[in-house]
Amino acid sequence: MVNLSLEHGNSDASCFAYVFLGMIAGPHFENYAGGFQFASWAMSLQKSAVGRYQARTYMAFGNFVMPWTRHVRSGRELVRRAFDIANKAGDLTFAAYSCNNLNTNLLAAEMRCPARNVRPNGASSLRRRRSSASSSRSSPRSSN
Q1: Run of H or E residues at 54
Q2: Is 27 among the domain residues?
Q3: How many domains does the chain contain in total?
Q4: pLDDT tens for residues 77-107?
Q5: For 27-78, what is each residue's pLDDT tens digit?
Q6: What range defines the domain where residue 77 resides?
């Protein structure tokens, strides 16, 4: 994806691919600073490009790239933003993933009570959306 984007121009998924490459550069090439720098460049591109990969890009950078070179707390706001964006877009899978990673971030930062820092309306709105999506897809039972 990165090669295609560099050769033919960026798409809405390019920033996510660039951050993902930055995420891989750290452990694979033992170049955490270079991976962070590349992923930071991708984040600067993301600010001007709103698309369906925006939440994924924020999540990957905030949760998987920033902790290499910064304190784990430094990416928390991006993870929260990823949750908000995914939730507003109706991407329930990624909203739940972001919520899970936000809790992981809070635990990694040794917060005493993570539930106090998570917005309760976020998780409850996910439950409501999931319930309404499930009920609209379920078929009525046949009575025999």
Answers
A1: helix 54-60
A2: yes
A3: 1
A4: 999 999 999 999 999 998 999 999 999 888 8
A5: 899 999 999 998 999 898 877 666 788 999 999 999 999 988 898 899 999 9
A6: 2-136
